[in-house]
Amino acid sequence: MTISPDPVAGQAVKAADRAHVFHSWSAQSLIDPLAVAGAEGSYFWDYEGKRYLDFSSQLVNTNIGHQHPKVVAAIQEQAAKLCTFAPAFAIEARSEAARLIAERTPGDLDKIFFTNGGAEANENAIRMARLHTGRQKVLSTYRSYHGATANAIALTGDPRRWPNETGVSGIVHFWGPYPYRSNFHAENEAQECERALAHLEQVIAFEGPQTVAAIILETVVGTAGILIPPAGYLAGVREICDRYGIVFILDEVMAGFGRTGEWFAADHWGVTPDLLTFAKGVNSGYVPLGGVAISGKIAETFAERPFPGGLTYSGHPLACASAVATLNAMAEEGIVENAKHIGETVIGPELRAMAERHPSIGEVRGLGVFWAVELVRNRETREPLTPYNAAGPANAPMAELAAECKKRGLWPFTNMNRFHVVPPCNVSETEVKEGLAILDEVLTFTDQHTA
Ligand SMILES: Cc1ncc(COP(=O)(O)O)c(C=O)c1O
């Protein structure tokens, strides 16, 4: 890893950014984007030469770390061979990527529709579900994020939905399981599972089962809290869907491709949805790519009848070549197994030990390299460290936590009152320990906000 500081170049990058780049999700004049000079593996660095351990995997997408040499080479080779070609043709990289993905997805999810990212994957999944069933409504959970396009943001439960709502989406929200803050006054996971399923059935009954096209869930809820479904919940939703002829969609955009220590999070519970959406880890985001894995039954709907959807860049050769190289490298290098091992032997035990030392930790939960540290003001009452959707002074304890991590060279992922530990799936034990030691130190600041 050669880092050659060049502050002058950094200033030019920053100046052009501030003059011309319009950033996602931001009040443009209130942000201060870091100018990044380079990245390798689990680290990246700025033009001053300061290095950061990437505990965010960017937006939880660089599952194989930065600049994986096999994937970089595959993109270069594909660029020399065939940069781009329309979706209507059969292209080697596209065929092979689809084959490798279908081989890994559960059950009979054997046909792949490619998109440029996760939101478009969810858009197309609900389009398929609506056409397959002839019904309109889609059910999703309040604690969720499904993307920023029109339907995907309407499916989303988190506050990013509010300014985007049209009020005519046909989307209905319900509560998924969350044992630590149970909406059902459950005292254990089994109760939470049973009551969450009863609640879902009631929502379906009152909406009219014959009007519901699909239920979409993040297999493990990501940004909204790394919520692991209790045993039996996903199987219960599968059974409800089968009973009412509802399409079951699992959004594995964040949880898929190794993040939870299995190829797909659904593999932990042996559940097969009718449609599975993916993006991010499929090629670590080296080139934009997402898609929908489609069951035989839904593929059959479009065997004689045209599917009314498409994208100029569906199955883009550079993106597909990078997916082929990523999936092969993940298998060759045991990257999914590494994620599982790191979660079981390092992240889990160390976070649980930290919870003993830090009164601000309410709960730690996770699988693989997908962990949340939920921060509270009071362990007894479970009052969150910051209120739901806090901004400005109300969010100060979380802003301080993030700033203190960055000062110490750790790039954090925080959301509301949570710190997410989401390094690359091929992170080493030493790297994880380095990051957790910084978190341990910084949590002493957070502890001061507890009562
Ligand atoms: C679970 C989930 N679904 C969908 C999306 C949207 O993906 P994209 O940003 O690629 O459109 C995300 C992005 O974070 C996600 O986490």
Give an overview of the whole structure.
Helix content is 38%, strand content 17%. By secondary structure, the protein is an alpha/beta fold. The chain has two domains: 175 residues, Aspartate Aminotransferase, domain 1 (Alpha-Beta Complex); 264 residues, Aspartate Aminotransferase, domain 2. The protein has a seven-stranded mixed beta sheet with strand order 4-10-9-8-7-5-6, sandwiched between helices. The longest helix is centred in the last third of the chain and has 23 residues. It is globular, with a radius of gyration of 22 Å. The protein starts with 6 loop residues before the first helix and ends with a helix. Pyridoxal-5'-phosphate binds next to helix 5.
Question: Briefly, what is this?
Answer:
The chain is of the alpha/beta class and about 450 residues long. The chain has helices at about 5-20, 55-60, 70-80, 90-105, 120-135, 150-155, 190-205, 235-245, 295-300, 315-330, 335-355, 395-405, 430-445; strands spanning about 35-40, 45, 50-55, 110-115, 135-140, 170-175, 210-220, 245-250, 275-280, 290-295, 360-365, 370-380, 385, 410, 415, 420.
Per the principal axes of the C-alpha atoms, what is the gross shape?
globular
Low-confidence stretches: none
| Count of DSSP-assigned helices | 13
Bound molecules: pyridoxal-5'-phosphate
What is the chains' assembly state? single chain
Question: Structural class, judged by helices and strands?
Answer: alpha/beta
- How is the main sheet built? 7 strands, mixed
User: Looking at CATH, which topology of the largest domain would you report?
Assistant: Aspartate Aminotransferase, domain 2
- At the first level of CATH, the class of the largest domain is Alpha Beta
Rg for CA atoms = 22 Å
Report the strand count.
16
